[in-house]
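Issue: ligand-bound run for 3-isopropylmalic acid - logging full I/O for the record.

Environment: standard queue, default settings, no custom constraints.

Inputs:
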Amino acid sequence: MKQKLLLLPGDGIGPEVTAAAAKIAELVAPDIEIGEALVGGASIDQHGVPLTDEVLAQAKASDAVLLGAVGGPKWADAERTKRPEMGLLNLRKGLDVFANLRPAYCFEALVDASTLKRNVVEGLDLMIVRELTSGVYFGEPRGIDSDDKGVRRGYDMSIYTAPEIERVARVAFEIARGRDGRVCSVEKSNVMESGLFWRNEVTALHKAHGDGVELSHMLADACAMELVRQPKQFDVILADNLFGDILSDTAAMLTGSIGMLPSASLGIEGTPGLFEPVHGSAPDIAGQGLANPCAAILSMEMALRWSLARPDAADRVMKAVAHALKAGARTRDLGGDLSTGAMTDAIIDQL
Ligand code: NAD
Ligand code: IPM
Ligand code: MN
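Outputs:
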């Protein structure tokens, strides 16, 4: 049976960058069946909701899902359940992709594209493992209302269960074993109970299942600072949903541009992975052919590697991106002037 890849282009630059990634997939893995469906604002416009049951079912029946980006000013004022971002959160939850892998590596050719000094980023290769289906993003209760004295308030709940921490920590340990063997677990155990619980659980789990892995802990604020001071000290960073989100945008700037950062979101074995660039829909440049397609193309690379079991095709894509950058191909965010299409063609030339 043919493997199935579902494209969910979404909004803003989403369709521009997923089209680029699909073009590459068709070349390196032509036998894969590629389908397409709506998510985010595009789905709201068509169906009134950011993710329909049908599309979720279609995603579940695929081998991998590649999502572009969701959101934009057009839908920003809608109530929460009608916002594009809810489509993405429901998709992550629906696929139960609890482990979000966000690698940050600095391509040799982009060492001088980062706002940080060459010696800080040269050779950088770290992996953020972000918990993706729990924590403050999903915790209950949450709301905007008034207390019994009539004082208006907004609140969210940061909560993690032991099994939720365990399953993502195991992934971090496993990934570290295939790398330099070091995991730095990040939280705010100094002020948050859920953070203290996270630290204790990860420590206990490491004692039981951490063979071959060196575990350290860092407070999230200090980690943000260390990420820009001396990022090469890190191998794998394990973080909850919210801190992992923030730290991965920070890490993006070490690589030269947010337009370079891919991600893979994985669930239990045998279920489809969700692959998406770390960047958003970039409304400021949407529709102008200015988007850097690398994050989406590298997300496709991760799909080929992690869900579609095609390491050779993945290697080809990775090498082609590196060679295109080496040959000087740059979109505007990287200081060049190539359009999305021209950058994609420059990568295809190197396949
Ligand atoms: P953003 O990532 O969309 O944009 C931040 C900045 O980075 C902008 O200046 C943008 O032009 C630039 N940028 C982003 N991707 C780029 C690319 N591929 N090439 C070149 N430049 C790029 O973040 P934002 O502006 O905070 O959010 C815009 C919308 O996207 C919001 O609605 C937000 O909720 C949504 N969002 C979606 C996702 C997702 O779908 N996974 C992720 C982040 C933000
Ligand atoms: C990301 C985004 C999303 C998140 C939003 C759009 C829901 O910022 O994928 O990093 O916060 O997880
Ligand atoms: Mn984010």
